[in-house]
Amino acid sequence: RVFSRSGRSRISLKKDATLGDLKEVVKNRLNVSPENQIFRIDQGGPLGGSDSAPLQSLGVQNGTILHLDAEAEVTNKDVFVRPVLTESAPPQPEEKKDSRSYDYEHVRECRHGPKERCINCLAKEDAKKKQEGTDSPKKEDMSWLCHHGPGGKCVNCLKDDFVANIKHESFEHYMLAKRAKCEHGREAVCPNCLPPADVSYKLKSCDRHPPWPHSICSYCMPNTAVLARQPYRHVDYVELMNVTEITNFVRYWQQSHCMQQRVGFMYGYYAEDPNYPEGVRAVMEAIYEPPQIGDMNGHQIIEDPYKEVADMIAGALELESIGWIFTSINHDAYLSSHEIRQAAKFQQEHLTDHPSGYKVSKYATVVLKPTDDGNSMPEAYMVSDQAQALERDNVFGDSDSRRLLKKREVGKDEILPTVMSENSPKEEFQPEWFIVNLGCGIPKKPMTILHHNDFPVENRDKEVGPNDIKNYLNKHKNEPGFRKCSDFHFLVHLAKMLDVESALIAAQCVAHEQELPLGLQELLNSLV
């Protein structure tokens, strides 16, 4: 796995692959030229060796995490190399510039390889097109590939300028645009270089006076929460890669005529998204459905001792928890006040360290709602960093309205921040302030690592019995052991039926497409 600024890329190579083979794949996948690639293992020293060196000799094995150093893309722009004139290459007359001169003084220099693009490149291209009066070619009509209803949108049916019209830009793109305004050297910092502040809405400790409630000052009082739409997002698109898995989830919900809502946790991975500048895509491979109670208005998750086991199996499959998915028949709000708070809690539980030093969450929320034609439409969201911080600092209170969030009642000797909305303090406010829209859809050609989805799903009306296991294994008896176990729900049940260690071994074999140990094969055969 290669970690870059855009996210994680899964790369499969042969056992005898060399460092040059890896660089060639990264070049095609990430558009980083081989000479600009510097790899590090677990943020250690640079990966040494020539391009012909086998990866195994460099300590790179199955499951190794490689970090692609972003500074590798920076060439030494401070050194000016003057051309050498020889007798065979006489001095050439100075080339006349085109009468159409382009003013790029306001644009910072690019700091990447020759085949990459950044915010500076886009600014230059836009300026050049305006000078020349040329328009970019129209995008080919791909709307016939859409899989959504009449009211939905996806990459196939969006117009040429859809990137310019999206409500939120990629976090990386947002930071690049801020840094493009810098006018200092690389060692200096300014507000444009720094990531958004991780604001705290709690009362600060202060030694300048007696503690609250006896005294307070402007330093220790909680920061005022000024509500504003977040201009960036940490995930741009949620791809439901395992189409059969999401179809199974929807069909079970529709069996109750959509009157019993369902919820599940999504497992997958993050990758770069070429459809957005510096974009990040969350790819769903599996859904785990915890014990739950559902009715017409929502769902309730019951305490689940096997959720940790599901996380471990996902990790053995080289997947991670990327979000949660639930169903709803309410069309009165994108996300209700309760759902905003729940999403904020989940995002706070799944924080990662961004290279800029800012802790971010890429935990997505997917809502499935019925359409007029009897199908269902997925909608993907996150909540803003501000909503996440307000929930973390216990500012929100319980609201009886789906359409309004409220500040909780102040307890004895407590002080809460002032919440400002439209230039006035508010005790109740609309959830739309905190909603971050993401793209969502299914791939044209699904390429999931989990080849089967026919084992009964856990925690539904029917309990999994011995006959279910026997029928599943008989159905796939002629397949290799790793492919036979290539069903997330079968692996979860394997952990319950045998032991967690055996299920983890089987999951690792599925991830690396390796045959199961002989003892585990014999054990599975005995279940038939």
Report the uncertain regions: 70-109, 115-120, 135-139, 159-165
The number of helical runs is: 13
Q: Kindly state the mean pLDDT as a whole number?
A: 81
Rg over CA atoms, rounded to whole Å, is 27 Å
Give the strand tally: 23
Characterise the protein shown here.
With 528 residues, this protein is of the alpha/beta class. The chain is 24% helix and 18% strand. The strands form seven sheets. Strands 8-10-9-13-16-17-23 form a seven-stranded mixed beta barrel, surrounded by five helices. Strands 2-1-4-3 form a four-stranded mixed beta sheet, with no helix packed on it. The protein has a three-stranded mixed beta sheet with strand order 6-20-21, with no helix packed on it. Strand 1 and strand 2 form a beta hairpin.
Key structural traits:
four-stranded mixed sheet; single chain; 23 strands; 13 helices; 528 residues; seven-stranded mixed beta barrel
Describe the structure concisely.
The chain is an alpha/beta fold and 528 residues long. The protein contains 13 helices and 23 strands. The model is unreliable at 70-109, 115-120, 135-139 and 159-165 (pLDDT under 50).
Describe how the helices and strands are arranged:
Blueprint: E1 2-4, E2 7-9, H1 19-30, E3 39-41, E4 66-68, H2 119-132, H3 162-165, E5 169-170, H4 171-179, E6 225-226, E7 232-233, E8 237-240, H5 243-254, E9 263-273, E10 279-288, E11 292-294, E12 299-301, H6 307-316, E13 320-327, H7 337-349, E14 351-353, E15 359-361, E16 364-370, E17 376-383, H8 385-392, E18 396-397, E19 405-407, E20 419-421, E21 424-425, E22 428-429, E23 435-441, H9 466-475, H10 481-484, H11 488-497, H12 500-512, H13 518-525
Parallel strand pairs: 1-4, 5-7, 6-20, 8-10, 8-23, 13-16
Antiparallel strand pairs: 1-2, 3-4, 9-10, 9-13, 11-12, 14-15, 16-17, 17-23, 18-19, 19-22, 20-21
Helix pairs in contact: 6-11, 6-12, 7-8, 11-12
